[in-house]
From TrEMBL:
This is Sag-related sequence srs53c. GO terms for cellular component: membrane. Keywords: Signal. It comes from Cystoisospora suis. Residues 58-171, 186-285 form the SRS domain. It comes from the Eukaryota. InterPro entries: SRS_dom, SRS_dom_sf. Gene3D superfamilies: SRS domain. It holds the Pfam family SAG. The keyword Transmembrane helix does not apply.
Amino acid sequence: MDPAYFFPWAVVALAVIIPDAIVTEASRHVGVAASGASMPLKVLDKNQSLQSRQGEPAECKVKTTGEATTTTVTIDEKTLQAKFTCGAGFTGGTVPDLATPADTCCKDQACNGGEKVTISSIIGVDAKAEKRENTVTVTLAKVPDGKRGEAFYYKCLAAARGAGDYCLVAVRLPGPLENNDCAIDRTVALSLSAPETTADFKCSGTLEKSPFVVKTDDSCTEEPAKNAILKLEETDPVGDTKTLGVAELPDTTTKLCYKCVYEEVPTVQNTTKKERRTCNVIVTVAGKEKPAPDSETSTSTSSTSSAPDAYATPGFVSPAVVAFSAVAVNWWPAGFFRS
């Protein structure tokens, strides 16, 4: 009998015994590229900056015409304050009157005397405006996320009585933040679900670089965490961006807390009194997946079935055999199929 007769059966035997090697060799011959490599995940950095620290108080010194705002000051994210002065020619007082500390303001640019309202009615948190010498300081308890970008107003009145001239000041809350941006009393939630992944967040305060234990209600404690599974990097010092990464997942899902601290923040009740405020960054690190237990009563074919069982299934053709057929075509004795 012609020895070439046994060649196809040798191909099948090899595919059953060493299918991985056969598929690899076959893919080399027919140009099949293996795929499916795991790629590291990374939270995209939206690169949005927080409001910068206020410097000298803004000066309102130009006469307002119509209802156009002359001067705008923005509440600072780190101090929760904004400051302005009434410039020369506009030292005739303010509307509302801030001769004594008050929580009042104008609700719109018209700023008519009868339309003054409380700051808290506009932004939803406690606030106070006070004037010392010629500087007006507005202090908030916090910047509510739902009110970001909103404004309230004050008039600096002309020094000449009866002139009716004024300079209009808008006090504006800082704009919206990205989900991974810290701010006073804010909580940022991050998750790491696979090995060799990272997540970014922004801290405009001072970051405490060691994590803390998280309670069951997802609040941070003062207890230092003993599980050092995360690596912290300062990837963008100018933009306040920090990166947390995990090399290997823990056995069980773990939550850790990092604190972005804001020191010396004035209080509304007494602006000369300063306190420490924080933003909590809660990081959830997924645990390793555990394989599902094998069912003793299951009759389904396991993915690890032996080759003979796989071939016993009607209509089933081993991928190794299919792939190896490409090799066999190249290696088959000439004229075999014509015999």
